[in-house]
Write a sequence for this structure.
């Protein structure tokens, strides 16, 4: 097991998350995709921290996990509000960002 | 001497402007006039004080100078707000304030009841202030400030009755023609700054008289450019076209600005920079030639005018031409002497013309005047005294000053030059005779005459006395060392050739000139005052010549075709093609381009979250990829 395996896995996970974000329509799935991307980054940080014998990467992981928790809380709140106002979670039908 | 009081000369007129200009609307007419007149009067009192001190001082100590503050400072070049009162400036100050004072008094009555009474006196005081600044400045730049200031006041006062379109046009014409001259003035000034690093008159004189190593061509160019400025301000051919039109202004303005003071500024400037002229004989020849051309040309034109003020205006142009002849002959004292006497008698003539016009209810055509002598005798006597002085009849002031100039031109340039100048002097007598027709001969008016008030007659009387006695300044005659020249302190030109023989010739010529002028004048008076107007008949016989003379040889039309119309065509081209197509096109085009780009880019805004997310990711990759590429990682 070398660093390349870990980084490769992280990149693959990030690509899966990003691709999911682009092609899926359900808002909850989009939130899950964001979680996948964040954890892909976490994995890369952890592997660099392990192979470079540093601790900075591990500190970043904690910060990202905190942000992910906060983001999940806020994101779920947004999804509930969105459902209440639009009666749907299909993101392809919601075009409120168009001015 | 008491140089710390010099600024007082300027302060009083400035105070008059401020008081009348800011709070004058609350005053009655008499109060406004009293403030304006007394401000000039106080200045005159100060000037007389300086004059008394100056006459009692030794010739070398006749300079009062003070520096108020340094205006600009750049290494070697120092431009100071400094005042210099030497005998030359003293003479000018006395002319400006003396005649200015009388004209202020006259105006108080002449302008009575005018809507712009207060405005008139504010402008007039402002003019006195700028004229004094012009005269008292000790350097070219400060002189230029006064120069432009009097130009501004001239513009404002020519167009004083701005309801009249002709007055506005005349004001603009004066301003624009003067701009052409000022262009030369500025260039000359800049050249002097670049070459000599100073604008101070006294420093300049010292440098120029020493070994400065500057080529004579450059010095000649400086003098020529400054003379161009003088030509504009002093209405010399071909830049004189504004002066006859300037008669649209109120008559006291014509007397003060366009006869006695401002138009002489060019002569004054030439005397101020006389050290430069002394180094360039070619320029002196140009100045004399321009002066001589103007003198004869304007005298001919004066002959063809039918408006009393326009006759006097062309006469002014002609007389200033004589002054430039004197300056060009190196006879600065004679030039300034003529400036003083001309200021007195031409001021008198204009004020007299004002009184006549006032009496005739605004009539200015000579052909409709006549036989006024018994109706307004005091004005008539004063006016005739002025005419005699202008024609140069012994013993009036003009006789002495013109004689000095004619002799100077003979001595300096020879017979031909003198003949032309003498012809100009004879023409002067001829058009003077024409104006006699106003007072003698058959009556040509009907209706009630307005008698001039006492306030208008007294200045006339004082000026007439001046026109009679100012010639005394030219004594002793037939020498360069007159009272006036000695006061001015210009170095007398040394007579090289057989002085004795020349001296006798000068006396003979003076007598002959005097007799000839008197004869011509008598003949002209006889012709113009006869019942049957012979000159009018002559004009009818040669209508084209008469029209040519009346139109100043069509110079206005030449200017119109050569300058005004091309400029107007260019302006119309700029307005219609350059401005509306190219400039507006560029501005509107920029607007259209922005709108088009906006509409194009607005298509990117879909409202779909995934599109935004994709652009974020794509942007990240783009930036990252570029950074890595340039870092040489792949």
């Amino acid at each position: 097991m070398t660093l390349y395996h870990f980084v490769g896995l992280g990149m693959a996970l990030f690509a899966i998350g990003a691709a999911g974000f682009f092609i899926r329509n359900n808002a909850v799935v989009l939130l899950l995709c964001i979680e996948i991307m964040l954890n892909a980054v976490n994995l890369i940080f952890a592997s660099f921290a392990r192979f470079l014998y540093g601790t900075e990467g591990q500190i970043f992981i904690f910060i990202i996990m905190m942000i992910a928790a906060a983001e999940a809380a806020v994101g779920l709140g947004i999804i509930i509000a969105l459902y209440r106002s639009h009666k749907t979670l299909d993101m392809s039908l919601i075009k409120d960002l168009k001015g | 001497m008491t140089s710390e009081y010099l600024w007082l000369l300027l302060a009083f007129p400035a105070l008059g402007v401020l008081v009348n200009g800011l709070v004058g609307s609350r005053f009655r007419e008499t109060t406004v006039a009293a403030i304006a007149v007394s401000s000039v009067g106080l200045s005159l009192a100060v000037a007389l004080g300086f004059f008394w001190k100056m006459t009692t001082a030794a010739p070398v100590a006749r300079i009062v100078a003070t520096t108020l503050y340094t205006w600009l400072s750049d290494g070697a070049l120092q431009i100071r707000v400094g005042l210099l009162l030497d005998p030359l400036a003293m003479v000018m100050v006395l002319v400006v304030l003396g005649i200015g004072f009388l004209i202020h008094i006259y105006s108080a009555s002449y302008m009575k009841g005018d809507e712009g009474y207060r405005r008139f006196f504010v402008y007039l005081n402002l003019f006195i202030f700028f004229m004094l600044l012009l005269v008292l400045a000790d350097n070219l730049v400060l002189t230029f400030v006064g120069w432009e200031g009097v130009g501004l006041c001239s513009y404002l006062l020519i167009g004083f009755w701005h309801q009249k379109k002709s007055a506005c046009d005349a004001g603009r014409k004066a301003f624009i023609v003067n701009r052409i001259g000022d262009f030369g003035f500025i260039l000359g000034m800049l050249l002097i700054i670049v070459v000599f690093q100073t604008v101070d008159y006294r420093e300049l004189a010292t440098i120029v008289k020493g070994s400065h190593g500057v080529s004579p061509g450059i010095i000649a160019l400086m003098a020529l450019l400054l003379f161009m400025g003088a030509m504009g301000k002093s209405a010399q051919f071909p830049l004189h076209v504004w002066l006859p039109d300037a008669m649209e202004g109120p008559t006291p303005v014509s007397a003060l600005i366009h006869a006695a003071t401002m138009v002489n500024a060019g002569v004054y400037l030439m005397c101020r920079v006389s050290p430069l002229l002394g180094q360039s004989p070619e320029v002196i020849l140009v100045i004399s030639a321009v002066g001589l051309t103007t003198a004869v040309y304007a005298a001919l034109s004066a002959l063809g005018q039918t408006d009393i003020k326009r006759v006097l205006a062309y006469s002014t142009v002609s007389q200033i031409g004589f002054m430039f002849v004197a300056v060009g002959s190196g006879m600065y004292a004679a030039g300034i002497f003529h400036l003083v006497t001309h200021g007195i008698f031409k001021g008198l003539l204009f004020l007299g013309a004002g009184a006549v016009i006032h009496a005739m209810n605004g009539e200015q055509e000579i052909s409709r005047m006549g036989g006024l002598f018994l109706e307004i005798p005091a004005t008539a006597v004063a006016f005739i005294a002025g005419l005699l002085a202008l024609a140069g009849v012994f013993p009036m002031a003009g006789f002495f000053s013109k004689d000095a100039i004619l002799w100077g031109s003979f001595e300096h340039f020879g017979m031909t030059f003198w003949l032309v100048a003498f012809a100009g002097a004879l023409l002067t007598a001829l058009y003077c005779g024409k104006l006699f027709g106003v007072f003698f001969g058959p009556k040509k008016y009907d209706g009630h005459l307005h008698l001039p008030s006492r306030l208008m007659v007294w200045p006339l009387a004082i000026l007439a006395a001046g026109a009679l006695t100012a010639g005394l300044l030219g004594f002793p005659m037939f020498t360069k060392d007159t009272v006036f020249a000695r006061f001015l302190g210009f170095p007398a030109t040394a007579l090289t050739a057989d002085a004795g023989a020349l001296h006798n010739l000068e006396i003979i010529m003076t007598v002959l000139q005097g007799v000839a002028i008197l004869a011509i004048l008598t003949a002209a008076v006889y012709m113009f005052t006869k019942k049957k107007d012979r000159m009018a008949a002559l004009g009818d016989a040669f209508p084209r010549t008469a029209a040519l003379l009346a139109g100043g040889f069509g110079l206005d039309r030449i200017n119109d075709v050569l300058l005004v119309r091309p400029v107007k065509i260019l302006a119309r081209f700029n307005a219609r093609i350059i401005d509306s197509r190219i400039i507006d096109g560029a501005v509107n085009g920029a607007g259209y381009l922005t709108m088009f780009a906006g509409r194009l880019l607005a298509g990117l805004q879909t409202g779909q979250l995934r599109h935004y997310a994709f652009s974020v990711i794509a942007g990240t990759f783009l930036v990252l990829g570029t950074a890595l590429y340039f870092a040489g990682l792949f």
